[in-house]
Amino acid sequence: MQVTYDSDKRKLLSSLCHGAIFFSTALFSIGVPIIINLISDDPVVKSNAKESINFHFNVWFWAILIGVPIGILSFLTFGLGGILFFPVVAFGFLLHWGLTIWALFHCFTNPDEPFRYPFIFRVF
Questions:
Q1: Lower CB density within 10 Å: C or N end of the chain?
Q2: Which residues have CB under 8 Å from 121's CB, separation 6+?
Q3: Residue in 100, 87, 106, 4 with CA at minimum distance from that of residue 55
Q4: By the 8 A CB rule, do 7 and 111 touch?
Q5: What kind of membrane protein is this, topologically (predicted)?
Q6: How far apart are CA 71 and CA 51, in angstroms?
Q7: 3-state SS, residue 110
């Protein structure tokens, strides 16, 4: 016997997982996919929640790895480091927002297939 899941509920929960990063990059945004992963029994929603959590960890990791040295360099050079590395930071933001929008689009167009972010390391 095959279990069927509500497509609209799947779209909503999967989109909430990926779109939570739009709320902020703080603990609230990662709390949403964690809670959805705990309460949902839908395997696609669970997979999207785990992928969203992994993406959050990647955003935080790269922000620290790139942002801290740029911040220190900017402090030491009275802002010059921030100006020099603006293209790197801008590319990071575009990649971050672009991948999130791509994930949301995928959740709405292919609700029966979990989304996988490219270029990220996965903890879960």
A1: N
A2: 54, 58
A3: 100
A4: yes
A5: Multi-pass membrane protein
A6: 29
A7: coil
